[in-house]
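Section 5.1 Outputs to date
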Amino acid sequence: MSSFNIGDWVEVLDDDISGTVKGFESDGRISIETEDGFELTFLSNELVGHFDDAIEVDRSALQDVIVEETSSNSKKRKSTKRQKSIPPMEVDLHIHHLTNSTKNMSNFEMLNLQLDTARSQLEFAIRKRIQKVVFIHGVGQGVLKAELETLLSRYNNVNFYEASFSEYGAGATEVFIYQNG
């Protein structure tokens, strides 16, 4: 399966995200909780662990790799770079995920809580240079979706569109954040 255990501290390769391993998904992904309390999933080859033990290297295996790399570099070969697919950050805006009780809240207060959450999560993604965020808002009457689109249209560095129907159904908006420099 993977060389990680629940509770291990890990960092995401090629990204400024780190956290604690929380669990293992059935599809082989590893669930981590970031320092900011977000739960994200990654493939094991996208993570690197921080272990207190010294790293041991099998010198014969290392020599095999060096010989293989040297011989493959001497032969001309076509580049087969693969596009790395980074999973998007998901933010569920359903009200029952944001508060324990809506008993004394008006519809206006609930909508404001959902929009404030969306705004803060988007700002977090921009700060942490996370490129894709999926806001799960549900279908309903479309009020939250319309207000979310109004909020997103205020940002010059984002594009937003319907998220994948096969993954999220009809009630999600995907946001692509353009990184500056």
